[in-house]
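Lecture 7 notes: from sequence to structure.
We start with the chain below.
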Amino acid sequence: MEDGEIKMRKLKNTIKARAVIISCILVVLFVPVIDAKPVIIGFDEKIDQSVLIEHGITNYTEYKIINAISADVPESVSKQLKKNPKIKYVEEDSRVQIADKPSKHQPPQPLQQITWGVARVKAPDAWINSTGKNVKIAVLDTGISNSHPDLNVSGGINLIGKSKNNKWNDDSGHGTHVSGIIAARNNSIGIIGIAPDAELYAVKVLDAYGNGYISDIIEGIDWAVQNNMNVVSMSLGTRTYSQALNDATANAYKAGILLVAAAGNNGDGNLSTDDVLYPAKFDSVIAVSAIDSNNIAPVWGADGEEVELAAPGIDIYSTWLDGGYVNKSGTSMATPFVSGVAALIKSKNLSLTPQEIRSALAYNAVDLGDTGRDRIYGFGLVQTG
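Predicted structure tokens for the same chain:
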């Protein structure tokens, strides 16, 4: 009997011990990572897989254009990474947004028209010699409508969401509007864009509400480089500085891509402050401000020493969802005017470098505001020649 009781006690103790072990395993398996935040991790040299393994980072996006990845990691891991000598930076993956103002939809026009903005930059004069043919323009935005009769989209990619795919169709309207300004077809309906024969590529980096992350923009720029784009048009911005985004735009510029971005709609009317958003604020990017039909910049337009060119941006009529058209305002609308004019210059001479196109844009601009380059209009109103 005594031996039997001893065996029974040992059996019970064994069962309890196993139960405790199983409970601990379950706790470890199912404790949620509640403090994980999206960050961009830059490496001094190449991306070191051993560092990622050491810190348990397995689900991430790796870039080719810069030595960096983006991932969701706990704050504690971010702090540890910042102490690692192989890490160049760990920065918050901040939000970016479209740079337009509220507007009212307009009924579609039955006959093709040349809008005031297209006429103001003298695009029709340039069409005799150049229409944007053989120039590839990546529109980093909310996508482009794949069924609008006034647009011809050559391809694209969707870079937002957990399940990234090639469904780059616009679910906002913003990207479609921007694209019409650049390259609405010369097809006798609606409008005609600045460079009607340019090749549009929809790089969806913003959601239906016009929001995205810096990591999405970097991935979009990366895609543009890998797919041999000539121009990257970005009607978006953020107030947050990012070393990763700075490196990405600089490397893309060196790789032969002209980058154009909205200066922003957050101007305060005070010329002593600098309101220009990123990425427009970077040296490698052309920052574009907006003007109205009287060549005057709105008070909400961002100003700063980085502003390089001004373009039409108030009451701009362009393509929209469901085959429609709409008037919109903002530096979002001004940006594609510069992208389109750049395409016309490039199309006329495909051997031109981004630096040479940039110089031509500055030289051709009509001076506005103070004599010479200023903080509101930059070199002035963009012109085709």
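Points to note: Residues 2-30 form the longest helix (29 residues). Residues 1-31 form one domain.
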